[in-house]
Design goal:
alpha+beta; eight-stranded mixed beta sheet; three-stranded antiparallel beta sheet; 11 strands
């Protein structure tokens, strides 16, 4: 596939998500809900996505992982979109209700922890960042950085992660973003975004 076909900008993302009908998972086994925000911005070099590295915390199965801002739905949240907005403001100081615009929603995904269902359903929302607000991380976030969307999509940052599960040695797909390894749930969510963007406009809505 040519580089041009893998070039991803906000115009293309908007067009693709306008055609996409997100597949929503039914809560059938008492799963909790969470939401994450894929925050995109256009820069001179292309569109970027905001990534965070979670702080190391004992008992957290995603401790130290690269991730998208987000977290579990709380009782005061009106809906999962509100969860994504609230968590993003808490974790990186971005108020997406004022400094962002909702582009669309991706398919729900079941969260996995150490190869097993974590009893959590994740709703990913895609936003465009408006302006250039500063990032102010809280204690749950070790750092925040922007990753080039097109380089991720076309495989220029492809890597892998050796992983052992129940005595089996596996090699999981990943990206290397300035020395940070992005894998697991975040890799799945962004890979889903790329699949949606690659769907031809003539195809039936997904």
């Amino acid at each position: 596939m040519s580089d041009q076909s893998e070039h991803i900008d906000l115009t293309r993302v908007r067009s693709a998500l306008a055609r996409h009908r997100a597949a929503l998972l039914v809560d059938s086994h008492g799963e909790r809900r969470a939401a994450v925000a894929a925050v995109l911005r256009d820069q001179g070099a292309g569109t970027e996505v905001l990534l965070i590295r979670r702080a190391s915390r004992e008992g957290d199965p995603w401790s130290g992982h690269m991730a998208l801002p987000g977290g579990r739905q709380q009782g005061e949240d009106r809906d999962l979109l509100h969860t994504a907005i609230r968590e993003t403001q808490e974790e990186v100081g971005l108020d997406l209700s004022a400094a962002g615009e909702l582009v669309g929603r991706l398919d729900d995904l079941p969260a996995m922890a150490r190869g097993r269902p974590a009893g959590l359903i994740i709703a990913p929302f895609v936003f465009e960042l408006l302006g250039t607000p500063a990032l102010i991380t809280n204690a749950e976030v070790e750092e925040a950085l922007w990753a080039p969307l097109t380089l991720l999509a076309k495989g220029a940052l492809d890597s892998s992660l050796p992983y052992e599960l129940d005595g089996r040695k596996l090699t999981l797909p990943a990206w290397d973003v300035e020395g940070r390894i992005v894998w697991g749930l975040t890799h799945r969510i962004l890979s889903t975004l790329f699949e949606v963007v690659r769907t031809p406009a003539s195809a039936p809505p997904t």
